[in-house]
Fold this protein.
Amino acid sequence: MQRIFSGIQPTGNLHLGNYLGAIRNWVRLQDEYECLFCVVDMHALTAWQEPRELVANTREVTAGLLAAGLDPERNIIFNQSQVRGHAQLAWIFSCVARMGWLNRMTQFKEKAGKHRENASVGLFAYPTLMAADILLYKATHVPVGEDQKQHLELTRDIAQKFNNDFGVEFFPLVEPLIFGAATRVMSLRDGTNKMSKSDPSDYSRINMTDDADTIVVKIRKAKTDPAPLPAEPDGLEDRPEAANLLGLYGALSETSLEETCQRFAGASFSDFKNEFAELSVSVLGPIQDEMRRLSADPGHVDAVLRQGAGRARDLAAPILAEIEEIVGYLRP
Ligand code: AMP
Ligand code: TRP
């Protein structure tokens, strides 16, 4: 049986990049695999979170997953901190991983920036917790965006070193599942920057909670260039904003970039934007309605997380017990 694990941080502002790059793909996987989808609140702590906001964001992201169509019966949906095994295995893995491996992580370098000495130890160790998330369940496949590929390679290195050090064939080597369309949705204000939760400008992204009017305004204000739209993808070279907007249209309408270009060949951005806004509202509208309904019912969201955590604990318990025996913890 192939088992999927993936995670998303509850750091607020779920946006179109999260939806197209991650969540929508998860919805497709639920038919084919046994899946665990985890709201990784422990990862969120690597940067300062206002405690009350962390609680609210954990519920909001969960509502987003449910609203997008993830079925809490077929999948295990839970928040990370409810299953203690993640922290317990992360400690073991932080003793397996080498400082040099973590030093090479580009996400740490980006996030710590010039203030390395001021970054939390957790931000540095983050990939060992991510490896623990996956391997606590011996997951075999992990759907992620491009940005997470390096962390998955590290997960494989940790699994391999653990197996070698202890002379066991215990952990599987996980495979990334990278989806073709929309692996990198870019900012609406700058086509060379990733659409991100943390961009200070809200006009840079379409949030999953934006209402129709807000979406229309954000798309109208999105950065473009003066040329008309090209007939072929080749014509998008050196036009990052045009490439991003057409790519988004293609992803939302589930048509190829070629077809999207043909459809809008020679059109002005303003005509294109009208159709793009209409499409965005029609795809996101029903999800937003459901998110709104769920946000009025936090008891239901909490019940989903509680039930998911119980199932996750049941899966993890025998695996963690074996790991603890392998490393030599005495259990008198
Ligand atoms: P994060 O927002 O960093 O917690 O990411 C959650 C998931 O969304 C991960 O699988 C990311 O790869 C994906 N993701 C985040 N931002 C983007 C983006 N701009 N384009 C595509 N996927 C994204
Ligand atoms: N690091 C991932 C991100 O920032 C989130 C994550 C945590 C994750 N644990 C994971 C993704 C395990 C896949 C598998 O997007």
